[in-house]
Amino acid sequence: MDKLTEIFDKVTGTFTGTYMWIPIILLLTAIFYYTFRTLNKNNAQLLGVLFIVFVVATGVVFMSVETKDSLMGLSYFIVPCLFVIAVIALFGTEIKRDIWERGSKKTGEIKTRHVDKSSQTGSVNDYIDEIVKALQNMSKNDVGAIIILANDNMPKSVIESGVVLDSFISSQLIESVFFPKTPLHDGAMIINGTKIHAAGCFLPLSQEVNLPKDLGTRHRAGIGITETINVTSLIVSEETGIISIAQGGRIKRYADSEMLRQTLKEYYWQEFLDKKK
Predict the structure, then answer these.
(1) Residues 90, 52: contact at Cβ < 8 Å?
(2) Residue 190 DSSP symbol
């Protein structure tokens, strides 16, 4: 019993004596590691700002409080910081999505509106037919493409990275934009309702590490934009001609005509479908 008491006293003495800073250093190291890891995975500037604030505040605590009281003062500071970091690490994607959507609503960069309620079914079906026709033609000819179905919510930075077209939808225009070696073929096309709003736009890449290795930059861009904004990506592989659909950070490959039409119907008639439910 005496030996156990002696061992316990030595252990507790380690944390209150000369080496009292070891557990604090280890704790801070773990926090810094997971913060950097989250930054790298989510590519979020907000986390970077919070990380800097955390480091500065920690330094202030160490410099402004006497050594004897610094451990207790630091403990009161670390607990809420750990909570904040944990929340951001778990909900980083949702935070980015909220920031992007709030920013796009304030700037109002997209002037075209979604399909008007007065639009006839025949007109909408024509748009769907044109998009499906273009996708299938590009798939047969192994022409890479990425089309974003937006909802007045694309960030200004994405739109400005390309060229504003503001043109009505046609399969000829879609195919000509993505024709190899044309100026806009490497970027994304933004469709907003009845208009092709812009083309040649650059999108944020997904940082998800578990994606199949055969998915290249075009697919990562198509998935990445859906991780931060409520949009749908239609992707044609340049290597295989496979058509994919990305929504909410997830991708469905080998999309056929029926899947494409269903996705486009949900896009154009979402308000109607919601009321029907």
Answers:
(1) no
(2) E
Q: How many residues does the chain have?
A: 277
SS3 category, 250: strand
The secondary structure of residue 196, as a DSSP letter, is: E
C-alpha 1, offset from chain centre: 58
d(CA 268, CA 277) in angstroms, rounded, equals 16
Closest CA to 171 of 129, 211, 210, 141: 129
Closest CA to 113 of 229, 194, 218, 205: 194
Contact 257, 136 (CB under 8 A): yes
Rg of the chain over all Cα atoms, to the nearest angstrom:
26
Record the pTM: 0.61
**CA-to-CA separations, 54 to 20, 40, 82, 275, in angstroms, rounded:** 21, 17, 10, 47
Per-residue pLDDT of the chain (277 residues; tens, 9 = 90+): 555 556 545 555 554 544 555 565 566 666 666 665 555 554 445 555 555 556 655 555 555 454 445 555 555 556 556 656 655 665 555 555 555 555 544 443 333 334 444 445 568 899 999 999 999 999 999 999 999 999 888 988 999 999 999 999 999 999 999 999 899 999 999 999 889 999 999 999 998 888 888 899 999 999 999 998 999 999 999 999 999 999 999 999 999 999 999 999 999 876 444 434 4
State the pairing for strand pair 188-192/145-150. parallel
* Architecture of the domain made up of 121-276: 3-Layer(aba) Sandwich (3.40)
SS (H, E, C) 212-228: CCCCCHHHHHHHHHHHH
Q: Where are the domains of the chain?
A: 2-90, 121-276
| Token reading at 197 | 């709003």
Of 113, 121, 107, 235, nearest to 160 (Cα)?
A: 107
Q: Considering only CA atoms, which of 234, 173, 223, 235 is closest in space to residue 198?
A: 173
